[in-house]
Design brief:
- The structure holds 2 protein chains of 2 kinds.
- By secondary structure, chain A is α+β, with helices and mostly antiparallel strands.
- Helix content of chain A is about 20%, strand content about 40%.
- In chain A, a hairpin with a 2-residue loop joins strand 3 (about 45-55) and strand 4.
- Chain B has helices at about 25-30, 75-85, 105-115, 130-135, 145-150, 165-175, 190-205, 215-225, 230-270, 275-290, 295-310, 310-325, 335-340, 345-350, 355-365, 375-385, 400-425, 445-480, 495-510, 515-520, 530-540, 545-560, 565-575, 580-590, 595-620, and strands at about 10-15, 35-40, 45-55, 60-65, 95-105, 125-130, 140, 155, 205-210, 390, 395-400, 435-440.
- A 7-stranded mixed β-sheet of chain B has the order 2-3-4-1-5-6-8, sandwiched between helices.
- Chain B has a domain at about 10-210: 3-Layer(aba) Sandwich (Rossmann fold).
- Chain B starts with 10 loop residues before the first strand and ends with a helix.
- Classes of the chains: A alpha+beta, B alpha/beta.
Chain lengths: ~80, ~625
């Protein structure tokens, strides 16, 4: 299984689902799936890594649908991709 | 006189929408300058309200609810919005109509919020905003299909162009005429279920999907480039601060001269009595020393508002996020903290761009540790007096410059430590996701910029006119009364309340190496940091212009302060919250006396500790 956090700049994939449990912080994981859905992540959509942060290549900016979303790799870790 | 003509109840419309939907622009376009920004009682959530007159001359109250993605109770913004919309908020009455603003270029996502809002029992109007951008990107939406499927009126708008609002204005009038009474809210389905409905709906109403905004795509390639992006970011910051100082110079000296002239006029008009002293040394000196920062604050805010309006602020947060995350902060905290180097007041006000309550509080708490420009006169005087300007490090730097740099660094490092400690204790809580949309780049609208700038200026001036004025008068009373007894030899202030207090404080300050003159000067110096120099001048009974006093002070410091004392005083100023205007701003922005007191106490404690260590280490080293 691959996750959005594994991708490098320029990589493209399709969103398969969410696995918020992968976050160690339980409090943080509780809302994460809803938050990802609300900002525009959705099963079946194409994602592409557009940019990476200058330090430790974190956070990342991805294109999903018509939007560019910035998120930390820690959060991207909850997004399952093909 | 209380007989009122029969009056229809004032209609209240709430604007709801996700961040980046252009909701605030639409609010600005409808209300213009007839708006007010305040806080909801007890929380840091901003309450923007304004007046709008409909086509048939009916007055409407518009409130701009915070930008939200959903109406769960996860964030303060969501809770307040939910409470207001469902009519259970303690101070805000339930609106009559919801105007939901959605970004047309991103309808699929924004429709989910519309569907959620429909469950809350109020009539909803949907405004498809940024219609022009959607068209340019090849997105084609059929508002009629959308309206039929949703069962609510749908209009298209371009908030940045006032001519495009006719459809919305007509719809508002119609909805008010046929006002549907509110119903009780019902439980909305889960996010997942809502999203499924939104997807189906989007499929029927969106005729063509369009492409990702091209200008944004191309600009981001440069502005978010791992190397170029950082260079551009720092050049932007550097340019911003250069201009803050450069452009502010002339208006600042004009304001200073203005106050000087005012002093001259008052001194000429009034005999040398208490009233003249109150006006000249209390009101004008106190309020003047704070008002002089207005140009810097306005210029800084112009830049911040432009960064925000163009969409660059989110990119700045992206670039700085990783570094800020090291101390548990969000990338959005960077710009407010940078601004605090000019003055903590605009910095603290700029924390409004930080969405998360706890992150915002942490940022506010550490903002005063950034060395503001009011500290420069104090630093310059002391360093000039006690540090020889020997070349150091192979003659590349002067020792004075190095000490100044060290003081800045001391502030930054302690800010990072304090932030990390706070995040582990008082502002502890579940980590907040960074997750954020990078909005499309847009040109700022001058009118909206001016409205927001005026609002900031108004808040600052109001504060200068109230709390700063009162404290200036209070400090003047402390420094002037009681009067010097006949035949006494010490300067006047020695016998005043401030003097008595200062001499009492001397016992507390003795371990820091402070003498009684310094202890006394710290009290009027509460008004603003640089006032301490003038106060020291008063204690040492120096006369003359500002420059002459500074020159005299240099001699006094060289002759009567020991080196450890001078260094301890510098260390004190790195931390001490010697600025009532900042404390007043913190009170307003946090909406809490608790946090304001906490900040005051922790900064004084740090200042004391630092000065104590510096004094004792210096004594040990210098013998």
């Amino acid at each position: 299984m691959r996750y959005l956090s594994d991708l490098n700049i320029g990589d493209e994939a399709k969103v398969l689902g969410f696995e918020a449990e992968r976050c160690k912080d339980i409090e943080f994981a509780r809302d994460l799936e809803d938050r990802l859905l609300e900002i525009g992540f959705e099963e079946g959509l194409d994602v592409k890594i557009l940019h990476e942060g200058p330090v430790s290549r974190d956070p990342i900016a991805v294109r999903i649908g018509q939007m560019t979303i910035a998120l930390r790799r820690m959060e991207a870790d909850a997004v399952k991709i093909s | 006189m209380n007989i009122m003509p029969e009056m229809t109840k004032e209609i209240k419309i709430a604007l709801v929408g996700s961040p980046n939907s252009g909701k605030s622009s639409l609010f600005n376009a409808l209300t213009g300058s007839r708006q007010k920004v305040a806080n909801y009682p007890g929380v840091t959530v901003e309450r923007r309200s304004g007046k709008y007159t409909t086509k048939n001359d009916q007055n409407i109250v518009l409130i701009d609810l915070p930008g939200i993605y959903s109406l769960k109770d996860r964030t303060l913004d969501e809770r307040v919005s939910r409470e207001v919309i469902t009519g259970v908020h303690t101070s805000e009455s339930r609106p009559d109509i919801l105007l939901c603003v959605a970004d047309s270029t991103n309808l699929r996502v924004h429709l989910r919020l519309v569907l959620e809002l429909k469950h809350l029992g109020l009539p909803v109007i949907l405004a498809l905003n940024m219609h022009d951008m959607a068209e340019r990107d090849g997105i084609d939406i059929d508002p009629e299909i959308l309206s039929r499927e949703l069962g609510i009126p749908v209009v298209t708008t371009i908030a940045v162009r006032s001519g495009s609002l006719d459809g919305l204005k007509t719809q508002l009038s119609n909805s008010i005429t046929d006002l549907i009474p509110p119903k009780d809210a019902v439980q909305a389905p889960t996010t997942r279920e809502l999203q499924k409905q939104a997807r189906t709906l989007a499929k029927t109403a969106i005729i063509s999907e369009g492409i990702h905004h091209k200008v944004t795509r191309e600009l981001d390639k440069i502005l978010l480039h791992p190397v170029l992006g950082i260079i551009i970011f720092f050049i932007t910051l550097f340019g911003m601060f250069q201009l803050v100082y450069f452009w502010a110079e002339t208006p600042m000296s004009l304001i200073e001269q203005g106050f000087l002239a005012l002093r001259g006029i008052i001194s000429g008009l009034l005999p040398d009595n208490w009233l003249r002293s109150l006006l000249v040394h209390g009101v004008i000196a106190g309020v003047g020393s704070v008002l002089v920062f207005l140009p810097q604050i306005l210029i800084l805010f112009t830049f911040i508002l432009i960064l925000e309006a163009t969409g660059y602020m989110a990119r700045a947060a992206f670039i700085m996020d990783r570094l800020m995350a090291l101390v548990g902060l969000n990338g959005r905290a960077f710009i407010p903290l940078m601004s605090s180097f000019a003055c903590a007041i605009p910095g603290i006000m700029a924390t409004r761009t930080i969405e998360h309550h706890r992150d915002r509080l942490t940022t506010i708490m550490i903002a005063p540790l950034m060395t503001c420009s009011a500290r420069i006169p104090v630093y310059a005087l002391l360093i000039g007096a006690v540090v020889p300007n020997n070349p150091v490090i192979f003659g590349l730097f002067g020792l004075q410059g190095l000490v100044l740099f060290g003081l800045y660094l001391a502030g930054i490092i302690s800010a990072l430590i304090v932030a990390a400690v706070l995040k582990m204790t008082l502002t502890k809580g579940a980590a907040q996701p960074f997750l954020m949309e990078l909005p499309k780049y847009q040109l700022p609208v001058l009118k909206h910029l001016l409205i927001n700038l005026w609002e900031r200026a108004r808040i600052f001036l109001k504060r200068a006119g109230t709390i700063i004025l009162y404290s200036a008068i209070g400090l003047w009373v402390l420094a002037q009364y009681p009067k010097k007894p006949l035949g006494a030899t010490e300067p006047d202030i020695y016998y005043s309340y401030a003097g008595t207090l200062g001499r009492a404080l001397q016992y507390i300050f003795e371990p820091l190496g402070f003498n009684w003159e310094m202890s006394i000067a710290l009290i009027p110096g509460m008004a603003a940091r640089e006032v301490a120099i003038g106060a020291l001048g008063t204690v040492y009974a120096l006369q003359g212009s500002e420059d002459q006093i500074a020159q005299g002070m240099r001699t006094v410091i060289q002759n009567s302060w020991s080196l450890p004392t001078a260094f301890a005083f510098l260390a004190w100023y790195v931390f001490a919250p010697q600025c009532l205007a900042t404390l007043a701003t913190v009170r307003r922005e946090t909406n809490s006396w608790g946090w304001t007191s906490f900040m005051t106490i922790y900064l004084f404690a740090l200042a004391y500790l630092a000065a104590f260590i510096v004094n004792n280490v210096a004594i040990a080293l210098l013998g």
